[in-house]
Amino acid sequence: MKKVILRLNEPSEKQWMFLKDTHRYVGYGGARGGGKSWSIRFKAIILGLRREGIKMLIVRRTYEELEKNHIRQLKDLLLPLGIAKYNATRRIFTFVTGSTIEFAYCQRDDDLGRLQGAEFDVIFVDEATQLSEYQLKVIAACCRGANDFPKRIYYTCNPGGQGHAYIKRIFIDKRYVDGENPEDYSFIQAKVTDNQALMSKDPEYLRMLEALPPKLREAWLNGSWDIFQGQFFEEFLDDPKHYEDRAWTHVIEPFDIPIGWRIYRSYDFGYSKPFSCAWWAVDQDGRLYRILELYGCGNTPNEGLKWTPQEQFSKIRQIEDEHPYLKGKHIQGVADPAIWEASSGQSVAETAAKHGIYFEKGDHKRIAGWMQVHYRLQFDEHGIPMMYFFSNCKAAIRTLPLMMYSETIPEDLDTNLEDHCLVGDTQITTRTGQRKIKDLVGSSGEVRSSDGKWHKYHDVRRTREKAKVFTVTLEDGTQFTGTEDHRILTEHEGWCPIGELQGKELRICR
Question: What's the superkingdom here (predicted)?
Fold first, then answer.
């Protein structure tokens, strides 16, 4: 066999740790410039040349990122040496050992369909925090197979992104749930100062990071997982040192509610998504205190307990009858107007009333509401805000720092919904016939979905204005229009955003 010398840069100390780590789940990074993508390629090459017939997968959020950060570099390195071949149609490298590297992107949940039934021995998820917890778990489920090669998943990551909470929990906080073995997890913190190759090649990069605004500098330079780019409520501070004196922190120790303070109840219905009920006290200065909460979420973030309205309000009634903060108090309730809708049977508000729980309709002006929260989180010159959270309100304390800005509306919160891609004139099938989706705003009912079944809908609203739209023309003259991220099922490419179809001739699945 012809001897080939493969010359690669000398790994840094942290990169050597990554290359040698044999845990099932390995996290690497935590700051900018740590050499994460290089480490993935180096590890994949080593495995591909040392092992026969193993299957590897590299994942990023978009195909463009895969091409820019991995595919081009692997082509330039491997193909001239003749140690691997690349199939551009299948996007797969095959080493002389028979081992392979495949690629997958996951910008939306629909993209996961390409991995259905797939099995890999090693999976690399680059910039893992850019993917959701659901996406990361589905991808991880593909790390399986009948051979005796030890299965491993490598995550590289920076603070921030929709997967921030999940990656932080398993690698930084090391809080595990049923089915997760702590001994399977390892995290290697790598910063730009650990990457001597980058420091020598581009010393200005470090100075650029040092010149960033304080909070962004903490995340990108020092790898702080409590502060990150895109954080919606970046004013929020949780400092246990000040729980007692209540200065320069939003989280404080609970105390007995003084007589005369008003008590409010806020409620947001959820079933497959979490429901949320919170109780607030208001002092004489108008300062808000979140004193108690009931959050309908299990071990998986953003996944509801699937309690019926009857179960939810039965529990709320019990809390208000028994908890010392609330027992015997007059409580004024505010809720999302959607709970008064009764498309079939009894509305959620009517169920609440049967338990002696009443609400006034809240305001749907979301951005104005978020601005009010921003205002209340600001500290005065003495470090006192207009909003506090009792330390027992764990759900709010966990989720508030993780909320991120919407990508499409700069002042709005990212609701992480998947249905923002339909233009107003899109025709959908309802119980009353074909109707434009824009004509359903403010209504509720049932629509026929892609599975051929009827599904209930409510809370239809406009989510974007002046969005770029694309029109697709089929060979029979049929046209349809959607925003650039509207997904179209193609025969060979799978689900593709309309915006990526320009200049292509593809077979559409109808």
Answer: Bacteria
